[in-house]
Structure formats: C-alpha cells, structure tokens
Amino acid sequence: MAGRVASVRARPYELQRNPAALAPLLGNLAREAGGCREDSHAVTMTAELSQYFRTKREGVAFVLDAFEAAFPDAPIRAYTTAGTFVDLATARRSPLTVAAANWHAAATLVGRTVGNAIFIDVGTTTTDIIPIVRGVVVASGLTDTARLRSSELLYLGAVRTPVEAVTHEVEVAGCAIAVSAEGFALSGDVYLWRGTLAPSDYTEPTPDGRPVSREFAAERLARVVCADREMLDEAAIDGIANDVAAAQVRRTAHAISLVRARHPSLDIAVVTGVGDFIAAEAATRAGMGVHRLADMIGAAAARCAPAAAVALLMAPPAAVAAVVDVVIKVGGSLLRDAAAYACVIDALRACSRQARVLVVPGGGPFADAVRDVDRHLTVGADEAHWLAIQAMDQHAHLLASRIPRAVVVRSPGEIDVALAAERMAMLAPSAWLRKDDPLPHSWDVTSDSIAAWVAGRVGARALALVKAEVAGEGSSDSNVNGYVDPYFASAIPLGVDVTVVAPRGVSGVCERAHAMGSNAPRATAVAGGAADADDIGADAIGSVKVFGSERTGEGNREADSMRGGHPPVNGFERHVIEQPTTSLVRGVEKHA
After folding, report:
1. Is a pLDDT exceeding 80 seen at residue 553?
2. Contact predicate 243/224, CB 8 Å
3. Most exposed of 200, 271, 398, 448 (fewest Cβ within 10 Å)?
4. How confident is the model at residue 202, as a pLDDT?
5. Residue 325, Cα to own-chain centre: how many angstroms?
6. How confident is the model at residue 470 (pLDDT cuts 50, 70, 90)?
7. Strands 136-137 and 357-361, bridge-based pairing
8. CA gap 271, 344 in Å, rounded
C-alpha cells in the first residue's frame, strides 16, 4: 500500500443539531492538520441520510456546499460508488453515486493490498461487510437499500444502536425477559460495561443525559428490563450486557456467512472501526482468518478508514511510477487515414529512442464492428465491453508489427520488462482489465478512459491522446473537452498532464516527456501512521491540465462531447473529510 497518512483529525458532529457549523468545522480541522490554502480535498459522506434533509439529493448538495464554503480556492473531488473521483458539478448531477460511498472507498483501499477478502467495518452505527475478489469490490448493491437487502450493510454499531434493536430478550436470574423499547440503553453502554469500548469512543449523547462511565452504563442497562441498580446486582448487569453482545456477534457472523456463501473462496477478513473487536469475533465465528486494517495503515487512520482511503486513493499509484514517462493513446480513427497513420508510426519509432513510452491503442474499426453487432443483435453491455477491449488488443498487435523493437505487453510486469529492455510497449489491455475490471461496462467508456486509467496505474507523468480531429498538423491542445468520451473526467487521475495532439505532434510529446523524466524528481505517496517532521510540508510536484473552457466543434468521432470537467489542480497534497463524524486525514507526498 503506497503512501503514509501524515495526520488524522476527527470530531463528533450531529448535523441536524447545528447544520451551520459544518463549513467552519471543516476549515478548523484542515488547519489543525497543517493544511495549506491550495491543498486538494476529497470528500466521502454519509450525512445525506440525516433527517434534516428530505432527500439524499438535498443532503449531498448541502455537504458539497459546505466544502466549497470551507475551501473556496481549493480543488475538491467527490468519491463515487464506481470507484472514481468526480468534480462537484458531476456529483450534484448524480447524487446517489456519491451518497454513502464511504464503504466503497475503504474496501477499494483494502483490495489494493489484500486481493481476496471480506472487509468488515463496525462503526458507531452500522456494519459494512464487503466482498473483495482479485482486488476488486464485488458488492451486490451500491445503495444502502440494496446493501441492506444483501446483508452487506447491517444497522448494528458499537455505540449508537439501541439495545432493543440488537436483541428482543435477555436472561436475568435464569429467566428470559423481553427487553423494553424505550431507548433506555445503547450498544455503547454494553461495551463500556464490558470494558471493550473506551469512554472516549462513546461519542453519542447518552440516553439519560448522564455521564459516560461504567457506573451510569449499568444504570442504563438495568432499565432495559424496566429495573434499576437497587434491583439488579453486577452479575445481572453482566448477564444483560453479555447477552446483547453475543446477539450482536451472532447476527454479524450470520451476515458474514451469507456474504461468504456468494464468494466461498474468501477466507480472510480485514476488520476495522471502533467496533473492530466485534468484527474480529464475528469473523472468527464464521470460520475466517482475521487481519486488522490498523496493522496496514495505522490505528488512527483505520478508525477513519473511509477518509484515509480517499486520501490514499487520490495519490498516484507508485507501483510502476519510475518506469513510464508518457502514455500515448493512438486513436483508432487514424486507421481510416493511411497518411496520418504512417505519420504516427514514424513518430513512434523515434519516440522509442527518446522516452519510456507505453502505447495504448484505440479500437477503431475493430471496435466499430462490435458496435454494429451490438446495434443489430443487442449483445449486452458486459459482452460488448469485453469485445471492444479485445478490439484494442488487435490494434496493439498491428502497431507492434510496424515498429522495430516494439513488443505487445499485457500487464504491469510485462511493461516493466519491455521498457527495461528499451523496447516500445504496445498494451493489449484485455487481460489486465479482465483481472481488475475497474471501469463501467458502457459505450460511455472508450479507449480514452482506458488510457487515462492506465496512465494512473503506471504512474505516468503525461498522457497524450493522438487524434485525427485536432486542427493543424503539428498542433496540440491541453483543453480536451470535445475530444474524449463521457467517462474520461472520472477516469483521469490527479497529477497527470493531459494533451490532445495531431499525428505530427507525437514527436514533441516524446521530447517533453523525456525532458520531464530526466530532470524532474518523482513524487511518491506517503501513507500510514504519523509522519516524520521532515515529511510535513514537503513540496509536492506535478500538475493537471485537463479541462479549460468548453470546446465547440464535432469532437471525437469515437466519443460524445464531455458532460463536465475537472478544475485545474496543482500538487498532490490532499486533505480528506468524511461525515457524519467529521474526520480529516492529511496525506503528504514527498519527493523520492
């Protein structure tokens, strides 16, 4: 897991009691974490479910407004349940994609380290049980409603859950007694009494308004059976607490078993949250081995796992960061113009001697054949997606056959080997994408978005999109609107310079990439635990030049015009905040 979490700040916050306090609170947390005015921010949330809002759309808009008010000059991105970051305008248009996406972010981070596992996060209010297969989140549903239906979301937490929502009866003096439904005690009282929850972790107001202590927890638990401490001794309180705790473990273990039944090969559980002790016991009861997220990213970050996750996920992956200077996506539409295609081939031959280049081929007429079949026979989104990606494989082989020392590569490892041997790497992406399956199965995703995703995965500093449509033989354009597919805005990572070039502009791209790779230091994400003093405030490098003003014209023949865009973003340092417990994680990047 690349990177290190430099600092974590969290504050209990009830939105509906004081909604106007959110924006100032966010700003204060950022300052406490040592944030700078120009830092980038990522947001994930659950606050949209608050009763203060009539709809989730209204709640999402409120949270995003608060972020803009708190950080008016900073770039802000929202995490989606598609596993991508989008600008706030896009988030507002599709609020359900960012509503309660926090679990997906945390599970995605886990998937990058533990390829096959069930991620279990027991928080104050709910429990997430998320299957991960080959590093990819494979949840049955993306909304809270769908996740409740699949048992991947339980409304059982370690602090806020009323006892009567955990179990309907407890045993006192050898007799089963139905519990009252008056909200007399919470799960936090159970675990406070048992000694498994620290008083500082009891962040909810107590039901009776009395202090958070073992003494008063016992009084609240006695009222669960309409008694008091003069009627029940410590042994009776022990019995009540133990019965409630056992019921919560039993129900959680049952849900884990239901999820595991859909993915029987998964035998490892990664647990986190203020109730990680509940998750560990339930996973063991379900027959799984247990690993703690705290051991991977540090205890403080694990307590705010979704916030830590979006901080780390926004950082460019470091796995192949020092290998690729530039990703060049060769548009498939160039296959319709023999002269333009020959020009690109000549430029790529020269590029192999100037820079470390990874070529991502467009599908062109090979993908068009899939579109035609889909129109006539309705192939289906999944099958059409994979057939179109296999069309890119065909173009990769064609390109490799025309360029000396070019080699077809299918994985990050093969890219390393090819470029180390000073070969030009032509990516046939189908095997890699089949393994990770990171993108939606839709015609909104073309080779443009695939190239953007690849650029992020290999740590490329630049992405050049070679398009026949660019006006002027040697021209280029850092405003890609009108040239790329609708999903591109979600796929392009921070820190990658994106340029659209004409066929004769490819040589210039290689020259600039070579200079960048030779003269500029690489930036690597720093993650997990506290940072050394010299890490804090380390200058970060890189910039994103992606979208400017809206471009007019026909746009790319292979894609629709953009439906929105990113603001320019400078630097890689970012702060991340999640709701409803407001948490801020500062992830600092440092020069390698």
Report:
1. no
2. no
3. 200
4. 96
5. 25
6. low
7. unpaired
8. 50
Residue 182 identity (one-letter amino acid): E
To 5 degrees, how large is the angle CA 311–CA 314–CA 318?
105
- Residues near 306 by beta carbon (within 8 Å), at least 6 away in sequence: 44, 102, 103, 105, 106, 578
Higher-pLDDT residue of 562 and 510 is 510
Q: Residue 44 is encoded by which pair of tokens?
A: 């994930």
Element (H, E) at 352: helix 338-354
Tell me the residue length of the chain: 592
Average pLDDT over residues 428-452: 89
Could you please report the per-residue DSSP string of 538-552?
A: -----EE----SPPP
**510's tokens:** 């290689």
Q: For the segment 86-105, what is each residue's pLDDT rounded down to a tens digit?
A: 999 999 999 999 999 999 99
Q: Are the C-beta atoms of residues 351 and 380 closer than 8 Å to each other? A: no
Query: What whole-number distance in Å separates Cα of residue 252 and Cα of residue 290?
Result: 15
Determine the Cα–Cα distance for residues 280 and 260; give it in Å rounded to an integer: 15
Cα–Cα distances in angstroms (integers) from residue 214 to residues 181, 195, 238, in the given order = 22, 8, 12
The pTM score is: 0.59
Domains along the chain with CATH numbers: 5-138+263-314 (3.30.420.40), 163-249 (3.30.420.190), 326-525+540-570 (3.40.1160.10)
90: Cβ–Cβ under 8 A, 6 or more apart, which residues?
A: 78, 489, 490, 563, 564
What is the mean pLDDT of the segment spanning 242-263? 97
**Which tens digits make up the pLDDT trace of 153-170?**
999 999 999 999 999 999
Reference 166, options 135, 133, 122; nearest CA is 122
pLDDT at 480: 61
Interhelix angle 381-402/447-457, rounded to 10 degrees, is 70
Distance set, CA 217 to CA 363, 488, 493 (Å):
64, 53, 48
Query: Any idea which residue has 């705290």 for tokens?
Result: 294
Give CA–CA dist 580/204, Å, rounded: 12
Angle of helix 338-354 relative to helix 506-519, nearest 10 degrees, comes to 20
**DSSP3 helix / strand / coil % (the chain, rounded to 5):** 40, 20, 40
Number of Cβ within 10 Å of residue 77's Cβ equals 26
496-518 CB burial, b ≥16 within 10 A, e <16: bbbbbbbbbbbbbbbebbbebbe
* Residue 128: φ, ψ to 5°: -100, 135
Do 310 and 44 touch, CB atoms closer than 8 A? yes
List the single range of 222-226, 239-243, 404-408 with lowest mean pLDDT.
404-408
- Residue 369: which region, alpha, beta or left (left: phi > 0; alpha: psi -120 to 50)? alpha
- 237: pLDDT strictly greater than 70: yes
Do 8 and 304 meet the contact criterion of CB atoms below 8 Å apart?
A: yes
Around Cβ 386, how many Cβ atoms within 10 Å?
16
Cα(514)–Cα(328) distance, integer angstroms: 13
For residues 242 and 42, give the distance between their C-alpha atoms in angstroms, rounded to a whole number.
40
Q: Is 41 helix (H, G, I), strand (E, B) or coil?
A: strand
Report the run of H or E that residue 339 belongs to, with start and end: helix 338-354
